[in-house]
Amino acid sequence: MTHSSSLPGLRHPWVDRLLNQHQRSLTELVNGLGSPLHLVCPAVFSANVEAFQRSFVRAQVAGSLLFAKKANKAGCFIKACALKGIGVDVASVGELQKALGAGVAGTDIGVSGPRKTDQLLKLCLAHHCLVAVDSLDELHRLHALAQSRRQTARLLLRCLPQMQPGSRFGLNTQECEQALAFCRQHSVTLELEGFSFHLSGYDTQQRAQVANQLIDLCLASDLEGCRSVNLGGGFAVRYMDPEQWQVFMDEQYPELFHGGKDFAGFYPYGALRAGAEVLDDILASPVGPGLTLAQKASNHDVRLIIEPGRALLDQAGVSVFRVQGVKDRSASEGYALVTVEGSSFNLSEQWFNSEFLPDPLLVATSPRPLAPFVACIGGATCLESDLLTWRKVAFDRPILPGDLLIYLNTAGYQMDSNESPFHEVALPQKVAVELRDQHFHWKLDNLA
Ligand SMILES: Cc1ncc(COP(=O)(O)O)c(C=O)c1O
User: Fold this and answer.
1) Quick one: which of 307, 230, 296, 276 has its CA closest to 61?
2) What Enzyme Commission number does this protein have (predicted)?
3) How far is CA 412 from the centre of its chain?
4) What's the 82 CA to ligand 1 centre distance in angstroms?
5) What pLDDT band is residue 438 in, cutting at 50, 70 and 90?
6) Which one, 25, 57, 195, 413, has least CB within 10 Å?
7) Every domain of the chain and the residues it spans
């Protein structure tokens, strides 16, 4: 018996319309621009921004959004940030240049990441960006640079949360005290605006707990402008039905995957609470008798900043791969090995000893009868481990060369964080799409 599974991904209406009404245009685009092709939809990104903004409004607390740019390199998203008047979280000179170039004001840019270079710090000073200082050394260098250039530095102190002591980021309690003393001593040059943290994982209560501690640090600092707490990112995304996900997690076994492969773990694809719902939960978390986090922040005029990456990109893109060949071993092994034009470098989850689990959708480019067909999806490289889908996926009809396989909801981290020109292949194009009045409008992302 062949073991296979079905994990349908949630699909935004724009993707349904694309598939139901504009399939021909999609095929032509892939023919013209190559496979894989990433389609990105800035309108969905903007709607996600609004959902987070509404959450702050509902909780009656001052809140700011910074889009964590690392999650997708597309220019259209950063331009949407400028249009919506939200900020951007960057962690390199390149990202900062892109954000400024797209029209985001320097004052709306947060700069995170470890051991920032002098070049990056100088740019931050010149554009008055908000630097999340990660070490004492960085604080001292920022101060020296600001002083020598007769500028002031806007900064947050990034704290190492007690529940993740193994993290390489942030200042521990002792370092934080020293940094605070240094900021007080040099308050003419260093404008300490508050504190920041970023937690791995998706625990809502932990985020509320650390945010509460950092509000207390702001209040105890006795520094007038020290009134911001940055909660980082980590707002879960729901890729599939939570019940279906739970069934899969309860039953998964190695035979479901090519080569019996096992994995370090999976992203929580069936999150019960996701996106702005998670922010609602954090803001409503009790932090004292009859007091929520939002109320406490608001009572003390503390501004809460968040830096979602993945959650702002929820449903804002898909990746299309053309089938290059099919090794049909249905009769002998019970499943086929499909090779697509492209590789697992174009689906980043595969590079973290994990798998991007939502089913790819088959767009058959020629008619054929329905018949169960199980397949794993490999990339067109000579790497044994280059599989986009190790899982034996159940399709409703055979896959043939020339068909398209569409990976849903890939804008958050999947598209480009691990892309590579391995084998001298060109990096995939991104196309920004807009579906309006029954029409399908598209532009190359770098022109959008
Ligand atoms: C400092 C910081 N902010 C924001 C993010 C974005 O996280 P997510 O995409 O999970 O929201 C990250 C991710 O690593 C981060 O390190």
Assistant:
1) 296
2) 5.1.1.1
3) 4
4) 20
5) confident
6) 57
7) 13-41+315-447, 42-236+273-309
Q: Which amino acid is at 139?
A: L
Q: How far apart are CA 44 and CA 21, in angstroms?
A: 19
Classify 446 as helix, strand or coil: helix
Rg from Cα positions in the chain: 24
Backbone CA torsion sign across 309, 311, 317, 319: positive
Q: What is the mean pLDDT of residues 205-223?
A: 97
Confidence of residue 448 (pLDDT cuts 50, 70, 90): low
By most ligand atoms within 8 Å of CB, the mutation choice from 64, 198, 237, 310 for ligand 1 is 198
Mutational test site, ligand 1, from 70, 72, 310, 313, max ligand atoms within 8 Å of CB: 70
Mean residue pLDDT across the chain? 96
DSSP state letter for 403: -
Cα–Cα distances in Å, from 124 out to 93, 96, 318, 342, 403?
A: 9, 9, 34, 37, 47
Q: Tell me the residue length of the chain.
A: 448
> What's the first-to-final CA gap in the chain, in angstroms?
49
Q: Does domain 42-236+273-309 have CATH number 3.40.50.880?
A: no
The set of protein residues with a Cβ atom below 6 angstroms from ligand 1 is: 68, 71, 89, 112, 198, 232-235, 307-311
pLDDT in tens, 169-190: 999 999 999 999 999 999 999 9
**CATH number listed for the domain at residues 13-41+315-447:** 2.40.37.10
CA distances from 146 to 99, 170, 259 (A): 22, 21, 56
Q: What is the mean pLDDT of residues 356-385?
A: 97
Q: Report the C-alpha gap between 253 and 395 in whole angstroms.
A: 19
